[in-house]
Amino acid sequence: VSIADLGRHLSERLGSGAVLDGADAAGRLVGWTVSQPLGAGLLVRPADTDGVATTLAACHAAGIGVVPLGGGTGLVDGVAATGDLVAISLERLRTIHEVDADDRVLIADAGVTLGAAQRAAAASGLEVGIDLGARDSAQLGGLVATNAGGNGVIRHGMTGDRVLGLEVVLADGTVIPGLRRIVKDNTGYDLSGLFVGSEGTLGVITKVALRCTPLPAGRLTALVAVVSFDAVVAILRDLQVRTAGAVAAFEVMWHSFYQAVAVESGQHRAPLPPDAPFYVLVEVETGTSDPGPEMLAHLLDDAMGAGHVLDAVVPHTAADREALWAIRDDIPALTEVLGGRFAYDISLPIGTMEAYLEELSRRLATRCGSRLVVFGHLGDGNLHLSIGGLQGSERPAIDDLVYAPLSELGGSISAEHGIGRSRSPHLHLSRSPEEIALMRTLKWALDPKGILNPGVIFG
Ligand SMILES: Cc1cc2nc3c(=O)[nH]c(=O)nc-3n(C[C@H](O)[C@H](O)[C@H](O)COP(=O)(O)OP(=O)(O)OC[C@H]3O[C@@H](n4cnc5c(N)ncnc54)[C@H](O)[C@@H]3O)c2cc1C
């Protein structure tokens, strides 16, 4: 069966508007930077789970590969296709079926954006506990498929920690109705968990049940300039104790990041002078709706007494708060300042970070013109490294510099973005041969013809 035959068959079954071909499929722009068109031979947009099952069953029968497509915000090249592949987009599965304030659960189609889910939960006094800069494009299915992290992991865990159950369509079109809404259910294997972080290689997620938590009455936000890395760690530890674990974000910007984005880019008004080694954007959930700056002073009491804090600013309005977050989230400005960058999303134990970064800087210093910029979700052991000033041909050598020490330090080559195609050559640095063999066993059990997202994770 050719792609054209398959397109005709699916048009008959799903309606012609659901199936795009030619330039409409190949030229579809996906991805954050939209520099690369999708490149698929067909783009199928089913309206419901049955349509997804019909599409997968037909592709399975024909032995044609399928690329599941969410909001296209993934950062590891997980949705690229070629003319002999079918892309299946979840964009029309957009219904929020239920928000239950008693069971604290949100049940929605996989194509619902994170932002829409957040707003629906908030209307019932709940939060889904997942947040990231791409909230208005990233879809629930994509978030689960990549087990996305984000700004709230320190408080709420990764996306997978929020999944109560999933409805998934397997490669052959079988629908697995695992949409559970209860927290406790130890009745055998965690089947929904299999699809968390599977990046479209084991099945297509069509519905998601997420565990919600009460929306906190208020949030105290502050940007704090800190004297040293040890002081940053001490502040985090102290805040966790003083708030009984209510730290909702602890975003650390090394001086290199603050200098590039808040100062050099010209896009922001620097809220604090750029002379501190570290800046921490901290948020604490509070029981009061209007926590004042005195609460921060109380929380940072010990840190200030110990001389850890150089300066701090507390936003007075929502716009002021957004301006602080805009600095932390302004990756486009960072890219522009660096004139292009190699980006890494690694994790490692907090106690090893400083020595790791010192060694990396030392090694990079031998490469003329290179510039290392660091920020990260410190409480999760997650660092985002950006290295500018290098030629594309230097990428493999820099990958080795960044990744090689991680396994010995107990770290990971991909903290929260997944493996996709771009990191598959380095999977073996974070997973043992036995683990990769088991992953392959699962892959072939669920997708024996290997049609789902070929090239992703396993290369
Ligand atoms: C500005 C910005 C900020 C970001 N910040 C963060 C961050 O802080 N933390 C973080 O972890 N990530 C972050 N990301 C990355 C990104 O948002 C996540 O990877 C997101 O989870 C991907 O969701 P998506 O719907 O866009 O999926 P896509 O990019 O469309 O797809 C990602 C992968 O999931 C698969 N997939 C998508 N939908 C399904 C489905 N329904 N069933 C099965 N497989 C599917 C795809 O095949 C692909 O392999 C950021 C991205 C941007 C652009």
Structure, explained:
There is one protein chain. This protein is an alpha+beta fold and about 450 residues long. It has 17 helices and 18 strands. It has helices at about 5-15, 20-25, 50-60, 115-125, 140-145, 155, 190-195, 230-240, 255-265, 295-300, 300-305, 320-330, 330-340, 350-365, 395-405, 405-410, 435-445; strands spanning about 20, 40-45, 65-70, 85-90, 95-100, 105-110, 125, 165-170, 175-180, 205-210, 215, 220-225, 245-255, 280-285, 310-315, 340-345, 370-375, 380-390. It has a seven-stranded antiparallel β-sheet with strand order 15-12-14-13-17-18-16, with helices on both faces. β17 (about 370-375) and β18 form a beta hairpin. The longest helix is centred in the last third of the chain and has 15 residues, at about 350-365. The model has no long low-confidence stretch (mean pLDDT about 95). Bound molecules: flavin-adenine dinucleotide (FAD). Flavin-adenine dinucleotide binds near residues 75 and 149. The site of flavin-adenine dinucleotide has 37 residues, from β3, α5 and β10.
Structure in a nutshell:
The chain has 459 residues and is an alpha+beta fold. It has 17 helices and 18 strands. β17 and β18 form a beta hairpin.
Low-confidence spans: pLDDT under 50, at least 5 residues? none
Helix content: 25-40%
Gap from first CA to last CA:
26 Å
Shape: globular
Instruction: For the largest sheet, list the strands in their spatial order.
Output: 15-12-14-13-17-18-16
Tell me the strand percentage band.
15-25%
- Which structural class best describes the helix and strand composition? alpha+beta
Major sheet attributes: 7 strands, antiparallel
Q: Give the C-alpha Rg.
A: 23 Å
Q: What would the average pLDDT be, to the nearest integer?
A: 95
The distinct ligands, each listed once, are: flavin-adenine dinucleotide
Instruction: List the total number of helices.
Output: 17
- Could you give the count of β-strands? 18
